[in-house]
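Exercise 7. Given the components listed, write out the predicted structure of the assembled complex. Treat all entries as one system.
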Amino acid sequence: MQGLDEALAAAWRLIVTGDTALVEIVALSLKVSLTAVFCAAVVGLPLGAVLALVRFPGRGPVIVVIDALMGLPPVVAGLFVYLLLSRAGPLGPYGLLFTPTAMVIAQTLLVIPIIAALTRQVVTDLWAEYCEQLTSLGAGRLRAVPTLLWDARSSLVTAILAGLGRAMAEVGAILVVGGNIDGVTRTMTTAIALETSKGDLPLALGLGIVLLVIVLAINAAAHMLGATARRAAG
Amino acid sequence: MHARATILPLSLDRVTYARGGETLIDGISVTIGSSSRTVVLGPNGAGKSLLLRLCHGLVAPTDGAVRWAGADAFGRRDTAGRQAMVFQRPVLLRRSALANITYALALQGRLERGERDARAREALASVGLAHVAERPARVLSGGEQQRLAIARAAALEPDVLFLDEPTASLDPGASRAIEDAIRAIDAAGTKIIMTTHDLGQARRLAEEVLFLCRGRLMEHTPAGEFFEHPRTPQAAAFLRGDLVA
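Answer.
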């Protein structure tokens, strides 16, 4: 096994020279996770707001389940999607298993509960403040959903980023449904997991560094975005 | 002056509101016409704000009924659309001052999209806020926020405008601007029903007074008479500045 400093130096070379394999892996990771978070936001934001505002039979259990799913182990989510997409599964004929699409589906399922649960909390608090005024203006609870989502936007960015953090960091779900196929479904986390066990430390370390930098950059950007929005909108 | 059709008069029929075994509004029956500015007075905890919310339909009475004479003519839903309320702490949406008003106009649905902007700018100008139209509502000062809330309510051209302690926690200059705005809205033909804890303001604005004490309606009298010759000992004590339980 190589020394740590050697591995680090090799990793650094891969990054600064823009190694093709590394760039491809990083690009695919970003594409999969960003797409998944986008899909999850489209579903999770309205879902969370409706759960906060609309009373319907079974609302309580739904909330408990969604809150619990925030802690869903990624491998289990992966297994579930695997069963759906496998040749014998209900979505088998589409041949999606071991494709980036399968990875997007799995990560979307992982992220929806996070965005929905955080959104529900934020919107519940905001509704307490807005309830009388919006009712007075004639907005029913359903009509209030888009209003509250828009007015909670600076807090909801944080919810979406929490989702992005989970998607970028998880390895279990995309490993099961993607398979870490070189050049097709190999992402940063799956590559790190498997290259480390194979002993290819430079690639694993290089990817680890890139992953860290991306996560830091995303959070820094969000932090600045939130601060600017709060200054501008009060 | 009040030529246009209106949902008034408003009649309360033995309206009662109880919560947790405590009767907060106790069998109030009263008819409020469209002709004069009505000020609801009473010591803290008398139920002034709650009475406004019951009238406006934000809170349902546990007993008795709130009726608008125009309910049959306009329909139930439209009755709500012909009222507006300004709260003690204005709740402004996180968007521009102008957008706060166009949002309310869009919900009301009386004006076409193209007409809302002009109406909203008019309303802003009427409270002296034309210059902050594009500014985020939440960064305005306390007095400006309350004026914006009043402009938003006035832009709806309601038959009735409820105001709950509209100048609480504002300085005298800001309070005067609010009182001017209330007079202008009244002059434009909107019925004013408001609460205040400021007796000076009540004397300046009230044309008739509803005096509440412990959830009961003690007096419903023209303002001049109320301030000169209160009929009940509670009102007399309240006007003297005594603590009224």
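Discussion: The longest helix of chain A spans residues 100-137. The mean pLDDT of chain A is 90.
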